[in-house]
């Protein structure tokens, strides 16, 4: 199986690596120098820092339509500070990364605890400081 295909049951899906790289740059505000030149090496990316949406609707880094994020199999850390996020799209995206060990969303305007921890068995560190979260999950 080539590195440009997902490991899914049945016929593997082709990944649009260029679209995925553009998504990381434009929607998540990842700096160009933090990404590999060869888009196919995105699967080796282990950490990403969101700096705010470039062309995202109302600054939302987690739009309804996003590319093949599952291709980021090596991603174990997502960090953001001061990037306004909506809990529901955030939960939808983070649920696609059960391998995450670290999630840091400081000062991101969250008012409730995101429901993603049940989907991630690898999660070891969560930092939601500076948000308006008043209750913790059971």
List keywords for this structure.
disordered N terminus, 138 residues, 4-stranded parallel β-sheet, 13% helix, alpha/beta
Description:
- There is one protein chain.
- The protein has 138 residues and is of the alpha/beta class.
- It is globular and about 45 Å long.
- It starts with 16 loop residues before the first helix and ends in an 11-residue tail after the last strand.
- It contains two helices and four strands; from the N terminus they run H-E-E-H-E-E.
- It has a four-stranded parallel β-sheet, with no helix packed on it.
- The model is unreliable at 1-12 and 54-58 (pLDDT under 50).
- Strand 2, helix 2 and strand 3 (102-106) form a beta-alpha-beta unit.
Lateral arrangement of strands in the main beta sheet? 1-2-3-4
Report low-confidence residues grouped into runs of 5 or more: 1-12, 54-58
Q: Kindly, what is the distance between the CA atoms of the first and last residues, rounded to a whole number of angstroms? A: 42 Å
Q: What share of the residues lie within helices?
A: 10-25%
Percent in strands: 5-15%
Q: How confident overall, as mean pLDDT?
A: 75
């Amino acid at each position: 199986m080539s590195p440009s295909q997902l490991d899914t049951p049945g016929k593997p899906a082709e990944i649009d690596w260029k679209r995925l790289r553009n998504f990381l740059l434009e929607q998540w505000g990842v700096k160009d120098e933090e990404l590999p030149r060869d888009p196919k090496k995105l699967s080796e990316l282990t950490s990403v820092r969101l700096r705010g949406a470039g062309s995202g609707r109302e600054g939302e880094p987690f739009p309804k339509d996003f590319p093949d994020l599952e291709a980021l199999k090596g991603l174990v850390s997502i960090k953001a500070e001061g990037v306004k996020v909506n809990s529901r799209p955030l939960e939808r995206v983070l649920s696609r990364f059960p391998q995450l060990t670290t999630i840091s969303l400081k000062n991101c305007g969250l008012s409730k605890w995101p429901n993603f921890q049940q989907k991630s068995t690898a999660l070891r560190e969560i930092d939601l400081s500076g948000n308006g979260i008043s209750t913790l999950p059971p």
